[in-house]
Amino acid sequence: MATEWPQTRKTGLADALRGAREMADQHYGIWSWIATVDHKRIGLMYGVTAFIFFLTGGIEALLLRTQLVVPNAGVLNADQYNRILTMHGTTMVFLVIMPLSAAFFNLMTPLMIGARDVAFPRLNAFSYWVFLAGGIFLNVSFFTKNIFSGELGAPDCGWTCYSTLSSKAFSPGHGVDFWALGVQILGIASLASGFNFIVTILNMRAPGMTLFRMPLFVWMTLVTSFLIIFAMPVIAVALFELIFDRLFNANFFNPDKGGNPLLWQHMFWLFGHPEVYILILPAMGIVSEILPTFSRKPLFGYPFVVFSGIAIGFMSWGVWVHHMYTTGLGTVANSAFGISTILIGVPTGVKVLNWMATMWGGSLNLKAPMMFAVGFVAMFTIGGLSGVTHSVVPSDYQQQDTYYVVAHFHYVLFGGAIFALFAGFYYWLPKFTGKLLNDRLGQIHFWLMLIGFNLTFFPMHVSGLLGMPRRISTYSEGQGWDFWNLLSTIGAFTIATSILVFIINFIYSLRRGEAAGYDPWDGRTLEWTIPSPPPHYNFEKIPVVHARDPFWHEKYTEDEEGRPIPVVAGAANGHENEGQEDHGGHGIHMPSPSYFPLIAALGFPIMATGLIYDYALVAVGAAVLFVGIYGWALEPATEGEEA
Amino acid sequence: MAQAVGTAHLETSTGLDNRKLLMWLFLGSECLFFGSLIAAYLLYRDRSVSGPHPGDLFDIPFTSVSAFVLLMSSVSMVLALAAIQRGNVRGMQIWLFTTAVLGLLFLSGQAFEFTEFNHEGLSLSTNLFGTTFFVLTGFHGAHVTIGVLILLSLFTVSLQGRIQQKNSLNVELAGLYWHFVDIVWIVIFTLVYLIQP
What we know:
heterodimer; A: Cytochrome C Oxidase, Chain A; two-stranded antiparallel ribbon; 2 strands; 63% helix; 1% strand; B: mainly alpha; Four Helix Bundle (Hemerythrin (Met), subunit A); elongated
């Protein structure tokens, strides 16, 4: 935690690192990234890391689809299939969608509320390093068996890791240990960033930026962060229970001693359903920024969208049993949770209608970000509708554990979250790279991905209704599933092609991309008032906010019929910066770079490895954590505070 | 310094100090953590298929004394904060140290209790009672341990003259955490020890 000790002397370790630290202070070289506490750099590191994990999880998905392309294919054996399936789900949820959302929280939140950084810059760096450590730790599990002879060491319990599949008896080896400890580490990262962004949003807003002038994305970051800080402790306890069961022979999920495996399901989904909204609310926030910009209209029904987001946040705590209809909780519980699940569709539907009303009558500019945002609305609606069919208990009895469920959650998490995240890339990356992504390649990417996505996941509705169960490593012919599985596999490779197009686009744009300038999209919010890429202090002068969509109101006024007209010729771009001649940031005290967040973060994977292999390492990890935290607490937080 | 980013020197939008808000959010999150652990304990109460059971082991007078010790440490914590807010560094040091000692006393009581229970045949894997009891009270004990470390760190730093009236917030934050851990113990003591089926 940041402290403000009256400084009498430097700490020894900081002295030892002085040379590297000077490099970090100058914002160049590798050390400046390792020690950075700049929210933009941390955001970019989150983005790049999560994208690499996205490719990993994608390759895992391709392996699974290749195995399922025809009946009785021999690409993967059942054991390999289970392990890759588990890692695909875990990776996409914890290492891709959550951290990509975190990347946007980091990149955008301070810029959108007119702040120079987050409330706790070093805690922010700590979140990233812990996330990276947890991600690597999880994936290292692959190599704990002899991978060259085809034995994978990864967990094999599915991303939900249901008890008793996860117990020592049914999952020997260390895969599940790595899973439980890895997800635990990732939870620490999420918690730290959840606290940080709530404080940042509540406390660091520029003058005049009242809560109801905040951009929708910032609102959704706030709601998501609250969900994170309340949901993560629940899964933390569940994971501790699993870890105690596996490593110290406790009985939480041991039926022999009276333990109830259903306890795991309750705790997992009590976390898991808020988690679903942790994954989708940031995506909704991104889309709520892009649709108004490219429709050249304010967001329709701003307060409704905000309150729908808040309502979803609350209601997400009361629907978890719809994952457990078939566990025999009885008709009363099933009916109650069926009703609450239908009800949570209401605020979600309100949002969809508001997005459509935002586009209605607007002058639509169908650039790549807008295409992905519209794609999000359409695909998410399909996923939402199939979700409502799950809420109906008798219908769900038929669909439980079939590919119909797989189709549903990929429509909301891929068709929803991933489409919105790509919309965010096309929209906001130019702010940080300074280069626009190529729009033609962006359109190709969009159409390939849209077609590939529907080709992959729409047939799963059919194969599911035809009775194909989830999580099976192969199937025999003659059940009517062959054709639909073939389509799904072709679709999966189409998606992979579209991702290649994106990567090419990204590299191409870095080299040859059109310069983005301050405001490439005629934007509405504060991030477009500053240069691309922004200086490390963001705002030379902290802006004063007078309205929702502040930058738009700087640029445009309305004529009698409500059409936007420019304020004064020539005042449009960079108006906010008038009178802000560039001082190069002199006199602005920014937080100092620090190595301690990284050192502290390193303690966790060391301790986790120790728990699995050798308790002596636990002490080493604890010592590393200890050094990191004490160094952190005792070093000065801000440049110029050094004596 | 009016332009400094971060925690110090900047008016916040809500008027609440950043670190204080962080601490409150953290404690809110902790409520769910202990809530889940306590829920697991209550769910499995009376479900052990073999003994020993709580009634065979609990020594209520002993645990009442150690609970009293922990409650008194909250009083000394309040006094430490009151002292530094008045600028009385010496008084703060005395009360911080007292708080830490009381915390350590509680922890030794817990260590003694755990050892006793173990001698009487209760381990983590004996039955559901052993599993849920040791994990719940163990995590509480870990929180007290971290609290003691924070208190002793503050005490050490204050010996170098680095805690003054103007940064009494450091003591206040430690106090918030310490009181929370106390309150959790009141809940655990009531639900686990006092209200037995």
